[in-house]
Structures are given as structure tokens and as C-alpha cells.
Design brief:
Elements (H helix, E strand, L loop, with lengths): L2 E8 L3 H12 L4 E4 L3 E6 L2 E8 L2 E8 L6
Antiparallel strand pairs: 1-5, 2-3, 3-4, 4-5
Amino acid sequence: MDHVATTNVPTEKASSYLQQLCKHFAHKVETRFTPEEGSIAFDFGRAELIARDGVLIISANASDQASL
């Protein structure tokens, strides 16, 4: 994946939100997750999630800018 966009979401519930997002998308696409890390495989790219103390880090990865 050549194109990446990352954001940090300040929250005390990072792990809960990571798991909730992965469970939501698991009904439609491949997901993998633990309480600390997750990935969601979309047709157009992949989302990587990391839960840390006080922050949820979300990175979107795609092969081109339009897909990102």
C-alpha cells in the first residue's frame, strides 16, 4: 500500500472502540483484532487500529490516492 492517512482520536475508551469497529465490519469484510490492535480489509484498502492509553490510532492504507 503506497498511500497512508493516519489520525489520533483522543479517548479513554480506545480498546472498546477498536473492538466495536472491528466487530461492526466483520459482518461484511475480513477483520482481525485483539484489545490492543486491529485490522479491517476493505476492497479498496486496509484500516489498521491501535489502542493506547488515552488514544485510538487509525491508519487508512490504499494503493492509490483515489482509493484512500
